[in-house]
Every structure is written in C-alpha cells, then in structure tokens.
Amino acid sequence: MSGAFSGLLTIRAHQLQTDANGLDDETLITRTVLIALVPVVVAFSFIVFVFYRARREAFFKQKEAELKLNIAKGELKALRAQINPHFIFNCLNSIHHYMHGPDAARAGDYLIKFSQLIRHVLESSEQRMVPLADEVEANRIYIQLEQLRMNHAFAFEITCDATLNLEKIQIPPMLIQPFVENAIWHGIAPGGTVELFVDTHNDRHLKCIVKDNGNPGGKASVDLSNTVKKTSLGMTLMQERFDTLNQLYETEASFTIANRDDGVSGKQVTLIIPYED
To answer: How high is the pLDDT of residue 27?
Structure first.
C-alpha cells in the first residue's frame, strides 16, 4: 500500500510541476505578447496624434486662408469703388464741357455714349471678371467720348490679336481705362494718336500696350506718380490693385511705363493682365 501511495504522490507532484510549467509558459507568452504590443500601441497612438494635429492645423490654415481671401476681396472691392466714382466724375465733367461748347446740339450723342459706358461700369462693378469684348468696347466708347469733347483733335487705334476669343476671355474690369485716360490727357498733343494693342502673353495672362506719341507742350505721359488727380488715377492706387489681384488669384499682373521702342516720340504702358476662359 505504501508503495502505491508513494507512486500516486509522485504522479501528482509531476502533474503539479507540469501545470506550473504550463502556467509559466502561458505567462511568458502573455508577457511577450504584451511587450510586443507596446510599440504597436505607441506607434498607433503617435499616428493618431499626428493625424489629429495635421487635421487641426489644416482646419486653422483653411480658416486663415479664408480670412485673408475675404480681406483681399474687400480691398479689391474698395479699390474698384475708388475707380468708378472718379471715372464717372471725369465723364460728367466732359459732358458739362461739351454742352457749353459751340455745338451743344450734339450733346445728345455724347449722352448716349455716356449712358452706354456707365451701364458697363455699373454692371461690372460687382463682377470679378468681365468679357474682354465688353472691356474693349467700353474703352472704345470712352475714347470716342474724349474725341467728342476735344472736337476730334486726336485719333485712336484699337487692335486685338485675331486669335483671341473676345467673348470667351474674361478679365478684371477697369484695368485698362485709367492708362488710356492718362495717355489722352497727358500723352498727346492735338493731332496725336492713342494706340491700344491686346495680345496673348502666356496661357494665363494677356499683354495690353497703350501707346501715345508724345505731348511736348503738356505734362509727361508718365505723370502717374502723384496722388489721385482730376484726370488720372495715381500709380499707387493702380499698383495696389495689381498687387491685390496677384495676392488674391496668384497671378503675375503688372504694368510698366517706358519710352516707346519703335522710334516714335512718346510713352508706352505695358499691362500684364490675368484672364480666364
């Protein structure tokens, strides 16, 4: 009996030792798995944190961009608001001058053209872009008004590249007219000519050149450096508008004023104007 009992004890002890070894193995495996999961959990947490932070930064950057966009739009609208009353005042002043001239009966023609021009100005004042055809026609009417006021003392030419789709191309309104106005008031003598050329500069910009043939007895045609005057918008105002366009739409709009390069006396203004089609 004692031998059998001893055998049972030996078997039981062996089982307990086996169970203990099994538990040790399970604990070791569990501990190993947990240790292996730690870097995974840390990496996952880091990825979640980075993703959350990126989303948060993107949100604030978007809000900041929207704020800057709204500010730039407001500045651009304010600049246009300065241009339109100035332009209308000049036209009304010309009407007054013309109606008190020797041929007041033709003032009706002047008023008709003026109404067409004012309609364009008012319709475009709230628009970001207008058809190039409308802008060219508005400048044509403006020059014709000035011709009437000055009793056709000067001539003008408007030339657009034949490949341009004037109806489809859209440009910011009232960018060309101030320079045409300056050329008429300061850049030509009686019998002079104002020329306007519109062509493609690149796939995002047009090139517009305004030329005069000089006014030896008058002010220089580049006299835009002072503050806003009765007959021309200041260079500072126009530069602000071009800068705002560049900031708002990431364009390369600009203007430069130089002596003509074709041997003719006078100045030329080269405008680089952004467009959409």
So the answer is: 73
> What is the per-residue pLDDT for 239?
85
CB 118 within 8 A of CB 91: yes
Tell me how far apart the alpha carbons of residues 17 and 100 are, in angstroms, rounded to a whole number: 124
Paired sense of beta strands 155-160 and 193-200, if any: parallel
Q: Which string of b and e fits 65-96 if b means at least 16 CB within 10 Å?
A: eeeeeeebeebbeebbeebbebbeebbeebbe
Tokens 């320079």 -> residue: 179
Max distance between CA atoms of the chain, in angstroms, equals 150
pLDDT of residue 89: 74
- What's the confidence (pLDDT) of residue 73? 59
Structure tokens belonging to residue 156: 């003008």
42 in Cβ contact with 50 (< 8 Å): no
The DSSP bridge partners found for residue 122 are: none
Q: How would you classify residue 8: left for phi > 0, otherwise alpha for psi between -120 and 50, otherwise beta? A: alpha
User: Cα separations (Å) of 109 from 92, 112, 141, 143?
Assistant: 14, 5, 11, 14
Report in angstroms the alpha-carbon separations of 113 from 3, 148, 151, 173, 266.
131, 10, 15, 18, 29
Question: What number of other Cβ atoms are within 10 A of residue 143's Cβ?
Answer: 22
With 0.85 as the threshold, say if the pTM is over it. no
Between the CA of residue 176 and those of 1, 103, 231, 248, 276, what are the distances in Å? Answer: 121, 30, 15, 19, 16
Name residues of the chain where pLDDT drops below 50: 5, 8-9, 16, 20, 23, 219-232
Query: What are the tens digits of pLDDT across the range 217-263?
Result: 654 433 333 333 444 456 777 888 888 888 878 889 999 999 998 88
Give the C-alpha distances (Å, rounded to integers) separating 221 from 37, 147, 211, 213, 261: 78, 18, 10, 9, 15
